[in-house]
Design goal:
The protein folds into two domains: 3-105; 126-169. By secondary structure, the protein is an all-alpha fold. α1 (3-15) runs antiparallel to α3 and α1 runs antiparallel to α5. It is built from eight helices and no strands.
C-alpha cells in the first residue's frame, strides 16, 4: 500500500471516532468503528501483530469491577462514560502515532525506509577502515597488540618456553 493511501485510511478512522463518541457507550457504531479500524491497521501494516496489539490494548472502561457500586447510579454512569471517552482519546492517539510513523519511516511506495548506515565498499582498504571504524576500536586493537607483544617478550625469557622453541627448531 502506498504511503498516502495508508495515511488516508488511518485518517478516515481517526475522523470516524466522532461517531462512537456521539452515540451511547459500546453501541453498534462503536463495534463497527473498532472492527473497521482493526481491519485497516491489519491491512496498512501488513498484519503486523505489534500494531494490532497496540490498538487492542486500549481500555474503554468495559470492566465494571473497579467501580464502587455503593455510589449513586448516575455517578457510576458518569464514570463509565468518562472511561469510555478516555479510551477513545487513547485510540485516537495511537492512530495518530501510526500516521506519524508512516510519514517518518515510509517511502512514497509504502516501503519502510532503509536505515542510513555505512555503505559497504567493494574492497575494504586501509583508508576506508580509517574513515569508518571508530577511534575507540583502533585504540582497543592497538592496546591488544601491544599487550600481546609485551607478553611475548616476557614469555621468551622463561626457560621452559626457550626449550620448547629450541627443540622445535632442531
Amino acid at each position: 500500500m502506498k504511503k498516502e493511501q495508508a495515511i488516508d485510511k488511518l485518517q478516515r478512522q481517526i475522523d470516524d471516532i466522532r461517531i462512537p463518541r456521539a452515540i451511547r457507550r459500546f453501541g453498534a457504531s462503536f463495534t463497527k468503528w473498532h472492527r473497521d479500524t482493526e481491519v485497516v491497521i491489519r491491512e496498512v501494516f501488513d498484519g503486523d501483530q505489534k500494531h494490532i496489539d497496540d490498538f487492542n490494548s486500549v481500555n474503554y472502561g468495559g470492566d465494571e469491577g473497579s467501580l464502587d457500586f455503593a455510589s449513586p447510579e448516575i455517578e457510576i454512569e458518569k464514570r463509565l462514560q468518562r472511561k469510555y471517552e478516555e479510551g477513545l482519546e487513547h485510540a485516537e492517539s495511537i492512530l495518530r502515532s501510526f500516521v506519524d510513523e508512516i510519514k517518518e519511516f515510509w517511502d512514497e511506495e509504502g516501503k519502510i525506509k532503509k536505515k542510513k548506515g555505512v555503505k559497504t565498499p567493494d574492497k575494504v582498504t586501509i583508508p576506508w577502515l580509517l574513515n569508518n571504524v571508530p577511534i575507540h576500536l583502533w585504540l582497543a586493537l592497538g592496546g591488544l597488540l601491544a599487550s600481546a607483544f609485551l607478553l611475548g617478550i616476557q614469555a621468551s625469557r622463561i626457560s621452559l618456553i626457550k626449550e620448547i622453541f629450541t627443540l622445535t627448531g632442531k
